[in-house]
Amino acid sequence: MKKKNILLTLFLFVSVLMLNTVKSYANEFGFAVEPQIPENQIDKSKTYYDLQLDPGQTQQLSVHLVNDTDNPVKVEATIKSATTNSNVVVEYGPNKLKADKSLKYNLADYAKMPNTIDIPAKSTLDVPIDVTMPSENFDGVMAGGITFKEIKKDNKTADSSNDKGLAIQNEYSYVVALLLRENTNEVAPNLKLHTVKASQVNARNVILANVQNDQATYINQVAIDAQITEKGKSKVLYKKSAENLQIAPNTNFDFPVPLNGKSLKAGTYHLKMIVNGNQLAEGQFVRTGEDKKEVHYSNQWILEKDFTIKAETAKKLNAKDVSIKKDYTWLYILIGILLLLLVIILIWVIRRRKKKNDEEAEKVE
């Protein structure tokens, strides 16, 4: 997946919610979504919710669902806390990523709305979202998203194609980000490195480094430089650099360092990650980007950890890696030995036959 900077264009999917394009998307999706931005929106130019409320305060938000089609539409609505995926991109919709242990206030516990919504044909429906803030004072942000997805009656109604048994069904959904905070106090970000282990992504060997942001704040314009060496040695075996990333508040992610077709070998290794975040012209930390230009950051973390790969683990993962070129040296050696034996046998047979013929010739004389 292509990495993108998501602070200024904070929510990739939310771009479909711009009011001047609602009609065109309604035709593609079967319905359209129009968030109604309230007065306590921190930045009213944003098309997602970024609200400031008092501790314990309740508020009802409203979303317009528009159905311009000639048929009724049934929509499923879900609310989920924001997560960070392995591409170091923030996700606001449903996924299989587990909530981080540092997440004290899960947005799904503080924002409620109907699970299913029926929108009659050629109509607009206002859907309420009831928000209740935690009673305690806290700094930082509760981040998450509201996903609206059309419930199809059967596969025939979905946008799909079928060619010689290969079926592809496209499903569309709107994701509206929802950020809640009690103040705009700055929260210092913090990263921790937890487990480092050998694993696989898309049937290819990688080293996974689990990194945690245990604070209720985004880390934006993130750049990661990771390298792996044998413990006690300086030669870099594997490395990966990535930039224009973003980490959600109170989340963790598994950053993969690929082996690029190389086999895992048992041993003890050392991972070093340099993570820069939050670009700032006067930032004290400097990194040269992919465009060869220097970029200044206000935050930097140097994360290091030793880890061990067992022989059994390496053998198991190598056997499943589709990118590893199989070593058939043993087969070539075996074939060579067999050919050599065949030649020796042929020479022996020829000599034996010649000797026999010579002996028979001598008897005749």
UniProtKB/TrEMBL annotation:
Residues 1-26 form the signal peptide. InterPro entries: WxLIP_HBD (IPR021759), WxLIP_PGBD (IPR010317). Keywords: Membrane, Signal, Transmembrane, Transmembrane helix. It comes from the Bacteria. Residues 31-150 form the WxL Interacting Protein peptidoglycan binding domain. Residues 164-318 form the WxL Interacting Protein host binding domain. The chain crosses the membrane at residues 330-350. The keyword Signal applies. Pfam families: WxLIP_HBD, WxLIP_PGBD. This is DUF916 and DUF3324 domain-containing protein. It comes from Enterococcus alishanensis.
